[in-house]
Design brief:
This protein is an alpha/beta fold and 268 residues long. It has a single domain, classed as Rossmann fold. It has eight helices and eleven strands. A seven-stranded parallel β-sheet has the order 3-2-1-4-5-7-10, with helices on both faces. Strands 6-11 form a two-stranded parallel sheet. Strand 2, helix 2 and strand 3 form a beta-alpha-beta unit. Helix 3 runs parallel beside helix 4. The two termini are 33 Å apart. The model has no long low-confidence stretch (mean pLDDT 94).
């Protein structure tokens, strides 16, 4: 089997490592030549792939795969807004042209706005941020395309190697909404969920990928900074806008069991 990972970064490289252990051939993309060597050193076949309004370039061989995993979040801080959707349309066009049949699109639980209630895959997203709006529109572009089957995985906030949650708020004060629940997921579970989709051929589905553990922000991040010997954060003891993301389809369809049922089970 051949899996191409478009956007072979923090999550993509971890996914590639597990795929390679199964004997899968992994193609990985980078947008600049200086990143290709790191892919080679990881056993990934490197491809320089660019999709943007100014320049589009790629080797068609990258699209000759059994499964395409697309993990390229919009870079709003870098000024990429509406251009992201144009990029997604170009990628979809290439997938159609080169007859990719199965796609996993990595989205985010940010598509759900904070409207003070629990949500799951059966709730219609109502984004309340620019990134959430863009990602939800991108999801629709994939879902309406009939030339291939797309599974959408919405990751919660990412934690894991190199992303210690204790660093998020260390030393900060007057942090609002300290009683709001967190919606996080460890890198290991991100990878294992993706592998489950591939192994079970679960294409055409929608999965929220978020830990079932939802402690309050103040309690969780204070514990994480203490464990990392970092300066304590100061939260305001209040509950403003919030959401709690449940992953119903992971259990019902994939029979998935989280590696980290408790977010503090992992030792950073």
């Amino acid at each position: 089997m051949v899996v191409s990972i478009l956007g072979c970064g923090w999550y993509g490289k971890a996914l590639a490592a597990d795929l390679l252990k199964t004997g899968t051939i992994v193609n990985g993309s980078a947008t600049s030549p200086d990143k290709l060597e790191a892919l080679v050193n990881s056993g990934i076949l490197p491809y320089l792939v660019k999709f943007d309004n100014e320049q589009t370039s790629f080797d068609p061989t990258f699209f000759k795969c059994d499964v395409m995993v697309i993990s390229i979040p919009p870079r709003l801080k870098a000024g990429e807004g509406g251009g992201y959707l144009s990029k997604i349309q170009q990628i979809i066009g290439a997938c159609v042209e080169y007859k990719v049949n199965k796609i996993i699109y990595i989205s985010s639980t940010g598509v759900y706005g904070e409207y003070d209630h629990e949500v799951n895959e059966f709730d219609e997203p109502k984004p309340d941020t620019a990134s959430g709006l863009i990602l939800f529109e991108a999801e629709q572009l994939f879902r309406k395309e009939t030339s291939f089957k797309t599974t959408i995985i919405r990751f919660g906030g990412l934690i894991g190697p190199g992303r210690h949650p204790g660093r998020f708020f260390a030393g900060k004060t007057n942090i609002p909404n300290g009683l709001a629940p967190v919606n996080l997921i460890h890198q290991s579970d991100c990878v294992r969920i993706t592998m489950a989709v591939i192994d079970k051929d679960a294409f055409g589905g929608l999965y929220n990928a978020c830990s079932p553990d939802h402690p309050a922000k103040a309690a969780y991040y204070s514990e994480m900074t203490a464990k990392a010997n970092l300066p304590s954060p100061g939260f305001i003891n209040e509950l403003k806008r919030w959401k709690l993301v449940n992953s119903v389809n992971l259990t019902a369809e994939l029979k998935y069991e989280f590696k980290f049922n408790k977010l503090n089970d992992y030792t950073f």
